[in-house]
Amino acid sequence: MARSTQDSLREQSRQMDCLYNETDRLYNGFARSCGLSECAYWVMYEIEVSSGSASLRGMAEAFSLSKQTLSSAVKSLEAKGLIELFFEEGSRKNKVASFTEAGRAFSRERIVPAIEAESRAFGSLEPEERERLVALVSKYASAIRRELDALKEGEK
To answer: pTM of the entire structure?
Structure first.
């Protein structure tokens, strides 16, 4: 690969990393302004968009959260009285998190406005741009996952 092409790829990759970090910083700052960790914010978000209850296993998968990180966030939300846990129907292992009345009120006050703001921001893009952005970010995430997994495999 030509040197200028390699330099261009590195700079574009760096720009993507900076944009992802900026987005993470924005969500982290917003979560903190709500008195939540970023992970706890995403738990509340997922419960809200799932009509008041969501599977912990599903959350871990959807948001790429470790069990330990998710467990810590769930415990903090339980301690604040915002959520409660139940076993999934027919399971003695898998749990579902649901809003308490206080959690529902908190979500209406803090989480729903953030979801609406996010929707407005995403809606500021043209429909074709939104579709293309989602498709390209998904393609990039898959590609970087493959590349980083290959690096990990090479270390073994």
So the answer is: 0.88
Task: Tell me: do 60 and 110 sit in the same domain.
Answer: yes
Per-residue pLDDT tens digits for 47-101 = 999 999 999 999 999 999 999 999 999 999 999 999 999 998 888 889 999 999 9
User: What's the domain count of the chain?
Assistant: 3
Range of the domain at 138: 126-156
- Tell which residue, 41, 117, 26, 119, has the closest CA to residue 83: 41
DSSP 75-135: HHHHHTTSEEEEEPTT-SS-EEEEE-HHHHHHIIIIIHHHHHHHHHHHHTS-HHHHHHHHH
Same domain, 90 and 132: no
CA angle centred on 35, ends 95 and 65, rounded to 5°:
40
Instruction: Sort residue 51 into left (φ over 0), alpha (ψ -120 to 50) or beta.
Output: left
Q: Are 136 and 73 in contact (CB under 8 A)?
A: no
